[in-house]
Amino acid sequence: MSVQHYQASQFKQQASDALANQTLRSNFRGAMDYLQQKRKDAFSDPQELAQLREHAENIRQRCLSKLPQLLEQLEKNCQANGIQVHWAEDAKQAQQLIAELIQSQGATKVVKGKSMVTEEIELNQHLEGLGIECVESDMGEYIVQLAKETPSHIIMPAIHKNKQQVADLFQQHIKDFDYTLSVDKLIQTGREALRTKFKQAEVGISGVNFAVAETGTLCLVENEGNGRMTTTVPPVHIAVTGIEKVVEFLSDVPPLFSILTRSATGQHITTYFNMISGPRRAPERDGPNEVHLVLLDNGRSQAYADEALRKTLQCIRCGACMNHCPVYTRVGGHAYGTTYPGPIGKIISPHLQGLAQTSDLVTASSLCGACEEVCPVKIPIPSLLQRLRHDAKLPAAEQTPSLKGQASAASWTEHTAWRMWAWLSTHPSIYNWAMAVGVKLAKYLPMPMGEWTRCRNKPELASQTFHQTMKRRASKSLTRSATGGGR
Amino acid sequence: MAVSNSNAKQNIMQRLAAVSALAPTNQTSANAWQASSPEQALARFEQSLMAAHADVIILENAKQLSACLLELQQQHQWQTALYGEGGEWSKVFSLALAEHLQLNHFLQPFEQLKTALFDSTDVTFTGCAAGIADTGTLVLKPSADEPRSLSLIAPCHVAVIKASQIVDNLSQLISEQHWHKGLPSNVVLISGPSKTADIQQTLAYGAHGPCQLIVIVINGE
Ligand code: SF4
Fold this sequence. Notes:
heterodimer; A: alpha/beta; B: six-stranded parallel sheet; 6 helices
């Protein structure tokens, strides 16, 4: 199975293609309107929202400020609970580590709950190459897996598909499927297909929403029960998470959980909140015999190294920023070519993939500020985008450590033009002369002027420069006051 | 377990340690919902669960439980059921239902019961460790007495809870029960039957877990 791959470096073309796809645009429009309204309803009291956001931001900042200690504490307490802890620096190490864990069980059948971090390391493709079947158990993920696609949203992976498209997929892939457009029946079809997989699975893989250092507990938030199935039915459970997901205290969890569900889908609470603090303990009769936790860096320590960029790691993956982003709403998730699309994708992907790959993404924002306004942990996404734009263009020698791919979008022409502008601006007589000449020559500028005139007229410059106009006005008013005019 | 992760931890920790000054953080708090009376808490618990598509039955006392279970069995025509032997209400489950359907104890390891649980169990019964009024949530602490899969695999889950077990919010529960001192291998919060809106944002129930959740609240206990 080869998954259709989009590339961050191809953003412009992918965005153009998405904009031309009417079905995709209408699927996204409908879904985003729905999610925006749901969030609005969930936070009907603005004061409560403000208080909760501030508290959630402070919790995340406190936990990040102690990240190394909390990771040590998490490891210690997980181990005391019987959870085996592993570390991976990058995607490759994580793939190998998880594959080794599976192979050491002699397992070939794996079910996986929804986990963006395993998308990030392209785990399915890696396992498939080793002859290990890894079936997505979240309904949306299962649909995109059947379609040989990647998720287009971090909360609702199949948001880009309508029910006809899902029914067509089921007809193609599920034996004896009785074609229907009833969503209830489609879900029952998925349920039955996946129940067989749960029964057969030898290993279950999940993500983690919060890892609690204080108690060595892994928390999973979900509605379907696939996460519980994945972490309860197979004899081995492997949880995979980014290192930033650790929280200090158990008491940090309720406010974060509350603001997460309400920001994501407008739900007051999700159906299941699963807290795992170890494998089956004697004399328990069910649950996995082994639980493993894989802690992944993959660029997060790069974001951590810089005080401003560190705020990126506050993210609790609610998806609200993408639901409210005018760019995401129009182009959808695949156009970004990254695991995390939308505003959060634009600020986290440069750390995961490097700025060279993602320099177009950081410019794909009108900086309207909607993402920052809805972010439950108050990540200043627009200013981080500006910072990343700056880093993509200019080598910032004074900044250490530098970002992977810094200055990758630097252009000699652009750089030289700005330097000349700077020089001109500090030499008034030459500046004034150049402007006067420029204004005279402006009417001879060629048409079209690239992107600017694609949907606009060529700007008509005034016949005089601003300085000339002001000078004339000043001399006029001087004459008037000398002659006593204007009284 | 011979899994290689040699220097990964060390390298990651080194990178994290080499950071610029960390901004000081503020201490804040957020107020969670609080009931003004036990009646208000119960009403909110019931309303929230019902809004999440669960069925809620409120009994005046524990003596009514047997009759209620029997009525449910007849109404839903359950043929096979599973419950945990050492659970708080296990004797009532057994006395009320043993003669009316095939009632099995969860005595063996899960592996031996797996097929029956997936394929031929209509309903499972459990008690609850607590309830949360704010969000209409059942708190289960699965154990050998009442294993995790009892609330997960069958198409219907019946949970029994005393009104006196209901607290206002999750934060309160965590602090009152000193959860920070250590947790069982699994704690699960359940707020309705399994659901999904993954196909065209249309809500459908019974995605993977129980399609139906019936909560019996025993008041006056
Ligand atoms: S950046 Fe904020 S709004 Fe976006 S996913 Fe993360 S927490 Fe949610």
